[in-house]
C-alpha cells in the first residue's frame, strides 16, 4: 500500500504495470510527479514515466488517485468496479486502471489510472448537443451491457451506496425506506431551514411530497427487477472526458465510486438536469432522449417501450431532487424543480 505519492519509485511502477500486463518488457527508469490537484473525494497526482527497454505502448502518463479518508468506502467500491465489472465489458467507456490497493485500518485507498488527457478533454464552457450525444452513447454502452443482468441482484447492489446520491439506488426495500427516512427526518429539514424562503411558489410542498412518496413509488417500480441496469450514479458532465477525435475515441466516464443498480434514464436525467440552465436542458433533451432510447433498442433491450422510458425519465427527474437537498444547494434544487414542472412529475406523486 502506497499512501503517499512521494513514495512511488520506478521499481514500484514496474512491478504494478508488470502485474497488470501493461509492461511486458522493460522497466521504469524515472518517475516524475506533476502538480497535484484535489476533487471532492480524492487527491490526484499526475505521473510521467520514462522507461528502459519498454515497448512503444507502455503507459507513460498516469494518475495516482488517493481517496480522502471520509470517502474510503467509495474508493473500495471503485476498485471493485475496475477489478470485477470492467473486465466483463467489451470496449468499456473508461480509462485503464493499472493497480489499486486499500488498507482498512488506515482507511487509505489508491488507484493507479491512465491519464486520458492526451486524447480527451474535460468539459468546457461551450458543450454542444454533439457532446451530450457522445456522452449518452457511452452511457448506453454501459446500460445495455448490464440490462437486467443477474449480477444486479447480488448483495453488493442491495446495500445502500452513494451518500447524497443514494436515493436513486435500487437496493433492498429496507434500504430504500431507510434512505427516504434520512431525507425526511434530516436532509430536507436542514435544507428548508436554510433555503425555504427562496423556493418558488409550491416548491416546499413539492419537495415534502417527493420525499414522502418516493419510497412507495420507487419500490413499486423496482420490485420485479425489470428494466434495471448498472448506473454510473454521478453522471454530471464533469465526470466525463470528451474525445478530441470522436471518430477514433469515445467519451470516457470517470469517478465510479457511486455506481449502483437503478433505472437507466437516471444517468441521463442527472447529466441534463444539472447542466447550467433549464433552457439548454429543454433543447438538448429533444435530441438526446430519442438517441438514448434508440441506443437501448439497438443494443438488444426489448420489452421496454418508449412509454416505459419516458415514465422512467420522469421518475429519474424526481430522484434528481434529492442530491441537491443533501448538498444544501438551492441552485441544484431549483434546476431539478424546473425539470419537475416541465415533465409534470407531480402526476406521478398523486
Characterise the protein shown here.
The chain has 350 residues and is α+β, with helices and mostly antiparallel strands. It folds into two domains: 5-117, Phosphorylase Kinase, domain 1; 124-349, Aminoglycoside phosphotransferase (APH), C-terminal lobe (Aminoglycoside 3'-phosphotransferase, Chain: A, domain 2), CATH 3.90.1200.10. The protein has eleven helices and eleven strands. Strands 1, 2, 3, 4, 5 and 6 form a six-stranded antiparallel beta sheet that branches. A three-stranded antiparallel beta sheet has the order 7-9-10, with helices on one face. Strands 8-11 form a two-stranded antiparallel sheet. The longest helix is centred in the middle third of the chain and has 23 residues, at 173-195. It is globular. It starts with 9 loop residues before the first helix and ends in an 8-residue tail after the last helix.
Amino acid at each position: 500500500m502506497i499512501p503517499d505519492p512521494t513514495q512511488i519509485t520506478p521499481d514500484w511502477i514496474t512491478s504494478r504495470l508488470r502485474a497488470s500486463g501493461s509492461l511486458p518488457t522493460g522497466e521504469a527508469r524515472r518517475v516524475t510527479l506533476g502538480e497535484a490537484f484535489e476533487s471532492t473525494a480524492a487527491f490526484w497526482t499526475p505521473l510521467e514515466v520514462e522507461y528502459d527497454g519498454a515497448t512503444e505502448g507502455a503507459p507513460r502518463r498516469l494518475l495516482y488517485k488517493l481517496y480522502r479518508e471520509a470517502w474510503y468506502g467509495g474508493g473500495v467500491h471503485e476498485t471493485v468496479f475496475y477489478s470485477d465489472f470492467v473486465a466483463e465489458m467489451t470496449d468499456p467507456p473508461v480509462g485503464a486502471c493499472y493497480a489499486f490497493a486499500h488498507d482498512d485500518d488506515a482507511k487509505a485507498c489508491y488507484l493507479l489510472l491512465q491519464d486520458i488527457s492526451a486524447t480527451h478533454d474535460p468539459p468546457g464552457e461551450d458543450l454542444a448537443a454533439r457532446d451530450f450525444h457522445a456522452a449518452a452513447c457511452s452511457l448506453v454502452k454501459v446500460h445495455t451491457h448490464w440490462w437486467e443482468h443477474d449480477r444486479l441482484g447480488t448483495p453488493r447492489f442491495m446495500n445502500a451506496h452513494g451518500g447524497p446520491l443514494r436515493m436513486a439506488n435500487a437496493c433492498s426495500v429496507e434500504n430504500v425506506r431507510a434512505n427516504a427516512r434520512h431525507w425526511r427526518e434530516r436532509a430536507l429539514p436542514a435544507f428548508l431551514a436554510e433555503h425555504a424562503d427562496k423556493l418558488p411558489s409550491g416548491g416546499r410542498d413539492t419537495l415534502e411530497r417527493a420525499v414522502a412518496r418516493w419510497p412507495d413509488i420507487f419500490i413499486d417500480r423496482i420490485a420485479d427487477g425489470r428494466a434495471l441496469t448498472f448506473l454510473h450514479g454521478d453522471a454530471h458532465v464533469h465526470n466525463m472526458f470528451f474525445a478530441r477525435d470522436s471518430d477514433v475515441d469515445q467519451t470516457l466516464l470517470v469517478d465510479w465510486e457511486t455506481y449502483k443498480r437503478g433505472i437507466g434514464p437516471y444517468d441521463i436525467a442527472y447529466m441534463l438536469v444539472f447542466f447550467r440552465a433549464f433552457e439548454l436542458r429543454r433543447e438538448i433533451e429533444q435530441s438526446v432522449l430519442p438517441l438514448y432510447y434508440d441506443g437501448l433498442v439497438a443494443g438488444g433491450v426489448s420489452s421496454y417501450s418508449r412509454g416505459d422510458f419516458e415514465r422512467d425519465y420522469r421518475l429519474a427527474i424526481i430522484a434528481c431532487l434529492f442530491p441537491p437537498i443533501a448538498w444544501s444547494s438551492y441552485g441544484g434544487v431549483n434546476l431539478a424543480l424546473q425539470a419537475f414542472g416541465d415533465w409534470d412529475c407531480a402526476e406521478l406523486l398523486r
